[in-house]
Amino acid sequence: IYAFNTAYTESNLNAITEALLGQGKIPLNKPIHELTPRDLAKYCLNDAEITLNLTTFNHNLVLGLIIL
């Protein structure tokens, strides 16, 4: 079952989040290992928040599909 009617064509966190929620990952202008601890924390927190938003959007649809 495909629940999102071709809302996205790529299967990465940024593409899916932009297509379904209008959000995206924080763009990096240097390798992740060169980020300051503060910038790395912001980057990781943003990833966690958009992942949570994906699993809980549309009345927990994604989470329900995962459990199936």
UniProtKB/TrEMBL annotation:
Q: Which Gene Ontology molecular-function terms are recorded?
A: nucleic acid binding
Q: What InterPro entries does the entry give?
A: RNaseH-like_sf (IPR012337), RNaseH_sf (IPR036397)
Q: What is this protein called?
A: Uncharacterized protein
Q: Which organism is it from?
A: marine sediment metagenome
